[in-house]
Specification:
The protein is of the alpha/beta class. It has a domain of 133 residues: Glutaredoxin (3-Layer(aba) Sandwich). The protein has five helices and eight strands, in the order αββαβαβαβββαβ. It is globular, with a radius of gyration of 42 Å.
Amino acid sequence: MLKRVLVPALIVSLAGLAWAEPEKNTPKKDKPAVPATPIVKPKDAAPPAEKAKKPEPTLVVGSKAPAITATEWIKGKEVKSFEKGKVYVVEFWATWCGPCLKSIPHLTDLQRKHKDVTFIGMASSERKPKDGSDTRLDTLKKFVSEQGDKMDYTVAYDADRAMSEAWMKPAGQGGIPCAFVVDGEGKIAFVGHPMAEGFEKTIASLTGGKHDEGKKDDHAKDKPADGKGKDQQPAKKK
């Protein structure tokens, strides 16, 4: 009888212990976040853009000089074309350009020294006032008039920059003053700064060294060592 009572009681007791035993804390695995995109350089990625190379000049020493044109001739005789056997200087400048103004006395001295050479100051980069009015020609005429004999050579006006486009651009020149020497065969003999030593030497070589000995260049000390444009202003019109 006792055995019959104890056995069921033992079974109930064991069941209670099993029920009371806490659940084991099984760590839950966190759900993975959105997977990161691996940083992989696409195989077809375009290479970094290279700087556009500056085109090589096509108007160089030895090239045939382009035609000479002008909107208006301000001072001196009009030059319609380059006469065979004569030497010409075509210098690009502007009234607002400081380095250009510094070269005016030097060009005047050289014109007086080399009377058989025709020096032309070609104003191709005159700027319009901020109000939009076009007073460029009037400004140029006034400037040349005020210079008087201090600017003693031919001066011309290029309103639409046709000369600059035909000469400066193909020569790879972006700054003024910039001078071109045209020899007796109508070919370019020099391209560069008018204060460079090579400029006057080129003129002297083309004229056989002939010049007026009585005229001294008082501005020789101001000449730079070369004609690479260390003392120039951008020629682009603003």
